[in-house]
């Protein structure tokens, strides 16, 4: 029914626990090697089958489902408010001069921006590929998110705001994405991925970045140096006006518009209290009830992240320098990294069997924090403030990795409880959860009058997810003695998923071109109906209503 990827078919599978008597569930889970979860802070399988009695299994599943939703919130908040801003600050600091801005702008979009937006997807894929038993989650999520974004999201944009698609970026992105899907199909057919093939995935993305930059440069040269008029240029990234318009709708929640015009000297304690407040009370009063409810859920996450992750903002005069909080980050960020790496295994290691690593990190961090606090002022950031962007990037990446690990483990647990394959969990729950942020942002962008930009994001962003997610995820699992990663499809569902994604790309390629890139509501309705049909076929295949030979 649900064999794991790359595990012997004769070995007892963890999903078979429900076939046994309820009194034997706990012993089966504890004694079966297939039930061991890799990484993570909590053993969800032992929790649901050993901690909760069998009659309370529905309660355990409900609690796990709520925790799953909250993990998606953690991923979203960390990526949006901490990972992406620090990544943007790093890219700003790495720019050589303003003379290369016209070339680095598209490069920034397809590298730093794509990495920021796709961080939850890529980290989830890397974590899932780390264990052959959960590799199906990665394939299901990458392909499932691809089908969802290129059908539901793209179709929703066409329904919200009919428009004319940018021809060259669309054709380029769809062709590259079809090549990436074909390569993955070949890898799945042979059941393995070698070192050369993993490097080929990353190399193809590098070639895609080079193609984007080259095409942009050629297009601008043809129309003259500098930024051409907005009416004639088909932008692949937002212009300054568009950035201001879009950022005005989803700006930070901390009331920047209410800051005083004239700066005043504030005490360190007052700065710390203001910096750790995730609520803007003026904004709170004018927002609807559902926004307040969601904000209440996010406040604990934001507070913990504010305590452990520094954020550098190049758009602010003070670069978001908060001396007392940033000095605290010198202690908390390294401590967070060492305690989340390998689920705390390195942080709890005893040096010479006497002194723990976390104690050493605390001691060194405290000394550095005191030195920085003494040698800096509240009003002006130090010259080395850009280092905090790298520290914030690393800390937020560790948060995302830890949340992604828990996410993969809890999805595998739900798969065991309901006897579902990892592939169907990946193409539904994991794909929907990772794509919900892109869905809202793209549809919002379309309603604001930028449907071409949103439509391009549907096809451009997921290229990064599939090429870097599969390539890097498999590359990190290779060792000097094992340069091959097995990727054996666990059911016919994998082939249906790959075929559905390829067919949706071909449909968009042919239909958009045939309509001379004029996209209306009919195109949107067709894409959404296509996704619903695909979802029905996938679920019918999972529940073995459709029984076709996989050979």
UniProtKB/TrEMBL annotation:
It comes from Bubo bubo (Eurasian eagle-owl). Residues 228-256 are annotated as: Disordered. Pfam families: Na_Ca_ex. GO terms for biological process: calcium export from the mitochondrion; intracellular calcium ion homeostasis. Keywords: Antiport, Calcium, Calcium transport, Glycoprotein, Ion transport, Lithium, Membrane, Mitochondrion, Mitochondrion inner membrane, Sensory transduction, Signal, Sodium, Sodium transport, Transmembrane, Transmembrane helix, Transport. The keyword Ion transport applies. It is found in: Mitochondrion inner membrane. The chain crosses the membrane at residues 56-75, 96-115, 135-162, 174-192, 198-218, 293-312, 355-374, 386-404, 410-432, 453-472, 492-510, 522-541. Coiled coil: none annotated. Belongs to the Ca(2+):cation antiporter (CaCA) (TC 2.A.19) family. SLC24A subfamily. This is Mitochondrial sodium/calcium exchanger protein. It catalyses: Ca(2+)(in) + 3 Na(+)(out) = Ca(2+)(out) + 3 Na(+)(in). GO terms for cellular component: mitochondrial inner membrane. It is a multi-pass membrane protein.
């Amino acid at each position: 029914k649900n064999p794991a990827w790359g595990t012997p078919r004769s070995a007892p599978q963890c999903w078979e626990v429900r076939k046994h008597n309820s009194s034997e569930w706990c012993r089966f889970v504890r004694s079966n090697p297939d039930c061991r979860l890799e990484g993570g802070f909590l053993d969800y399988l032992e929790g649901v089958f050993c901690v909760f009695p069998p009659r309370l299994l529905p309660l355990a599943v409900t609690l796990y489902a709520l925790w799953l939703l909250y993990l998606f919130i953690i991923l979203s908040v960390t990526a949006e408010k901490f990972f992406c801003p620090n990544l943007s600050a790093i890219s700003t600091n790495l720019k050589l001069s303003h003379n290369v801005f016209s070339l680095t702008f598209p490069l920034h979009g397809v590298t730093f921006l794509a990495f920021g937006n796709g961080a939850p997807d890529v980290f989830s894929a890397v974590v899932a590929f780390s264990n052959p038993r959960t590799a199906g989650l990665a394939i299901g999520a990458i392909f499932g998110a691809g089908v969802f974004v290129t059908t539901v999201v793209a179709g929703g944009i066409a329904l919200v705001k009919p428009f004319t698609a940018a021809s060259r970026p669309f054709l380029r992105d769809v062709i590259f994405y079809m090549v990436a899907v074909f390569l993955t199909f070949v890898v799945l057919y042979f059941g393995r991925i070698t070192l050369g093939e993993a490097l080929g995935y990353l190399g193809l993305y590098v070639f895609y970045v080079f193609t984007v930059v080259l095409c942009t440069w050629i297009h601008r040269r043809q129309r003259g140096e500098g930024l051409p008029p907005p009416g004639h240029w088909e932008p692949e990234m937002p212009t300054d006006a568009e950035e201001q318009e879009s950022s005005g709708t989803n700006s930070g929640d901390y009331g920047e518009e209410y800051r005083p015009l004239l700066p005043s000297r504030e005490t360190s304690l007052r700065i710390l209290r203001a910096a750790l407040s995730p609520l803007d009370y003026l904004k709170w009063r004018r927002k609807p009830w559902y926004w307040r409810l969601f904000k209440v859920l996010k406040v604990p996450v934001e507070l913990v992240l504010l305590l452990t992750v520094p954020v550098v903002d190049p758009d602010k005069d003070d670069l978001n320098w908060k001396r007392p909080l940033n000095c605290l980050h010198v202690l908390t960020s390294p401590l967070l990294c060492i305690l989340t790496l390998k689920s705390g295994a390195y942080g709890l290691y005893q040096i010479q069997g006497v002194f723990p690593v976390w104690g050493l990190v605390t001691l060194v961090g405290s000394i550095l924090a005191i030195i920085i606090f003494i040698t800096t002022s509240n009003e002006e950031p130090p010259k080395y403030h850009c280092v905090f962007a790298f520290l914030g990037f690393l800390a937020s990446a560790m948060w995302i990795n830890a949340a992604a690990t828990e996410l993969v483990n809890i999805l595998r647990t739900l798969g065991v409880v309901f006897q579902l394959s990892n592939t169907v969990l990946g193409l539904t729950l994991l794909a929907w959860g990772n794509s919900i942020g892109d869905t809202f942002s793209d549809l919002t962008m379309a309603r604001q009058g930028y449907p071409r930009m949103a439509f391009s994001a549907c096809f451009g962003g997921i290229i990064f997810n599939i090429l870097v997610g599969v390539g890097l995820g498999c590359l990190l699992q290779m060792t000097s003695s094992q340069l091959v990663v097995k990727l054996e499809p666990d059911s016919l569902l994998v082939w249906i998923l790959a075929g559905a994604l390829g067919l949706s790309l071909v449909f968009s390629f042919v239909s958009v071109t045939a309509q001379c890139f004029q996209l209306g509501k009919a195109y949107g309705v067709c894409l959404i109906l296509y996704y619903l049909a695909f979802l029905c076929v996938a679920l019918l295949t999972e529940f073995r209503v459709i029984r076709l030979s996989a050979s």
